[in-house]
Amino acid sequence: YVEESTYQTVEAFATTAAKIAITQCHVNKVTVRVEKPSALVFAESAGIEITRSQSYFANETRHISQPHLNPLNGKNFGNTRSTIPERAEAIKTSLPKGYNHFAFIGLGSNMGDCVKNINDALQQLETICKCKVLDTSFLYETSPMYVTDQPNFLNAACK
Fold it and tell me: What is the Cα 86 distance to its own chain's centre?
């Protein structure tokens, strides 16, 4: 399955690998780690790690029988790619009640107390912007790119 897939993001690939383990191999919970060496110029690798359980895929009854399926809606990525409105509709079903939009936001800091700065940003998203932070990534320390004579960055993302 892996060798035949043509995913364009490691996130989509990891989610589908988790889905296969849970829906076809009947695993209760799985952690999938994907690294793409040399994907970024100044980094050792680009990578993600996700943990999924049966409840994550509970609303999906479709089993993956072939590669190239979109993990958001199970539609084939081959000749019949899903449209942006179809993907948006799939995302809307996972939004908390009263919210209309869904976004992933990158966060980073290399000045002062970086952890505090990122936590403050998350709190301000909820209090000032009236957003609901649904999930956050781990914090990652990265070397600066392009302008290299500055401190390392702490980076994260939120949903």
Answer: 18
Amino acid at 124: Q
Sign, CA dihedral 122-125-127-128, equals positive
Say how far apart CA 38 and CA 33 lie, in whole Å.
Answer: 16
pLDDT digits (tens, 9 = 90+) for 60-111: 644 333 333 344 444 433 333 444 455 555 555 667 788 777 788 999 999 9
Helices (H), the chain: 10-23, 84-92, 114-127
Confidence of residue 154 (pLDDT cuts 50, 70, 90): very high
Whole-number Å distance between alpha carbons of 60 and 74: 9
Q: What would the two tokens of residue 124 be?
A: 């301000």
φ/ψ of residue 116, rounded to 5: -65, -40
